[in-house]
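The instructor's notes for this session suggest beginning with a concrete chain rather than abstract definitions. Hand out the sequence below and ask the class to guess, before any prediction is shown, which regions might be ordered.
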Amino acid sequence: MFYFLLMLCAGQILIIFLLMWKVRRLTIALQKAKLIEEKEADLAQHRLYQEEAAYVMTLMYEIRSAVAKQEQALHRRALERTQRALPFSKKKLRLLFTEEEVHTIQTFWQHYETYLRKHWLTEKGKIKSVFRGAPHLPNSEYGQMVIASKNILPIFDELLSNLNSSS
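After discussion, reveal the predicted structure:
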């Protein structure tokens, strides 16, 4: 009888040991799966940040292109298609860019908003469709817009160059 109880206890101890070993292996497997899932989530977040940063840069190049078109002739629609304000908050921009880059991006948009406000926006905030004067008359409304377009392009180019060199 003693021998039987001893074998029964040994069997139960073995079963407990095997169960603990199996639980440990499952715990390790779950931890590995969790780490892989976290890495995949981090990678997805990183890709999203890259796409958002590329989106900001694309918008800036679209603005530059729209302003450049104004040197040759009125291209109202080009300006209407541009983003008038920063697409993300400063907090979000800090996730996408360095502090220096955020400052450069904000400076770019401030110049653009000033350009629009001074030369293109009506009192109701709409893009003008008619300008007084002619492009070759520097004192006319049209001439002032052309001059402003020519003057702002080197500023945009420098800011974009700074962003490209820091990336």
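Then share the key points. The chain has a mean pLDDT of 87. Residues 115 and 148 are 7 Å apart (CA to CA).
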